[in-house]
TrEMBL record:
Domain EAL intervals: 24-278
Superkingdom per UniProt: Bacteria
Coiled coil: none
Origin species: Geodermatophilus ruber
Residues of the full protein shown: 583 to 871 of 871
UniProt name for this protein: PAS domain S-box-containing protein/diguanylate cyclase (GGDEF) domain-containing protein
Length: 289
């Protein structure tokens, strides 16, 4: 329909804008009860070692199945939880649920899987992270070395001594730290030498073009080199095609994660896959060498 200017025009837009605002308000109001109502779930996406050709870790990914609105992606509800001040509770629940699951998982080749958990900047800013992690390690018995806290560049760049102090405390506990979505933020290389980071997660925006664009390939190669120089593992995120995986292998990237290898799945599915012996020669890797 043709748009007209003048009186009444803005009213025509109100319903659409209103719907988004109404949805946000609804999510914000319902979020505090989502845990108690059993609407939240943690899925696990395998992370594969390209050298060993087996699963060496998983990333925990939060899901919210709203009874009326359906599946709400974390990219939508995590920011709402942050603004509503309930991210701490959500995060503690996810951390505990994921740790419980990890303790129950079979190990592959006798090596227990690593567990990556995403941590939002506001949880770090609230200064409860160190205590929350310690409590979960205690209550679940998860070995600290198995836990990987995935933080983004935004968390690292947040002003305040506390970030370095808290992450140093976490490292002293034995917990590992991954820099998530690496390459997308305003990151200075100097941060890599100052913060206790163990893993770089190369963002999928690079991975999608690693096999087709020479500049992207060169950037990915640099990240792999930085990892090797500083002794950090590099995990490629969002690997969807054999060509991408092949390119990453050629560059010497150590680990990969993505729909090609496995989708995020429930704890039971993951347990069944691992028990099946798929921990060695992961199916998604077959035929990609
Ligand atoms: P992320 O940490 O970068 O997680 C990876 C995202 O990529 C996940 O989306 C995953 O499902 C998706 N993914 C995995 N393989 C592929 C692939 O091959 N292709 C494509 N296109 N995507 C792939 P998801 O689960 O929707 O999570 C989105 C973001 O939400 C996460 O990004 C993370 O930043 C955040 N998030 C998820 N769970 C939590 C949580 O428990 N706490 C916090 N604070 N944030 C979370
Ligand atoms: Mg992540
Ligand atoms: Mg990521
Ligand atoms: Mg990402």
């Amino acid at each position: 329909a043709a748009e007209r200017s003048g009186p009444g025009t803005s009213q025509q837009y109100r319903p659409a804008l209103g719907n988004a605002a109404v949805r946000r308000a609804r999510l914000r109001d319902d979020l505090p009860y989502a845990v108690a109502r059993g609407e939240l779930a943690v899925l696990f996406q395998p992370i594969v070692s390209l050298e060993e050709q087996r699963v060496t870790g998983v990333e925990a990914l939060l899901r919210w199945r709203h009874p009326e609105l359906g599946d709400v992606p974390p990219a939508e509800f995590v920011p709402i939880a942050e603004r509503a001040g309930v991210i701490g509770e959500l995060q503690r629940w996810a951390l505990e649920r994921a740790a419980e699951a990890a303790v129950a998982l079979p190990s592959t080749n006798g090596v227990p899987l690593r567990l990556g958990v995403n941590i939002s900047a506001s949880h770090v800013a609230a200064r409860t992270l160190v205590g929350d992690v310690a409590a979960v390690l205690r209550s679940t018995g998860l070995a600290p070395e198995r836990l990987v806290l995935e933080i983004t560049e935004a968390t690292v760049l947040a002003d305040g001594e506390y970030v370095a102090v808290d992450f140093e405390a976490l490292r002293l506990m034995g917990v590992h730290v991954a820099l998530d979505d690496f390459g997308t933020g305003h990151f200075s290389l100097a941060h890599l030498t100052r913060l206790p980071i163990d893993i770089l997660k190369l963002d999928e925006s690079f991975v999608t073009r690693v096999d087709r664009d020479p500049k992207t390939r060169a950037l990915c190669e640099s990240v792999v080199t930085i990892g090797r120089t500083l002794g950090l593992d590099v995990v490629a995120e969002g690997v969807e095609t054999p060509a991408q995986l092949g390119a990453l292998r050629t560059l010497g990237c150590g680990f990969a994660q993505g729909f090609l290898l496995a989708r995020p799945m429930r704890q039971e599915e993951l347990g069944a896959l691992l028990a099946d012996g798929a921990g060695v020669l992961w199916p998604g890797l077959v035929g990609t060498r």
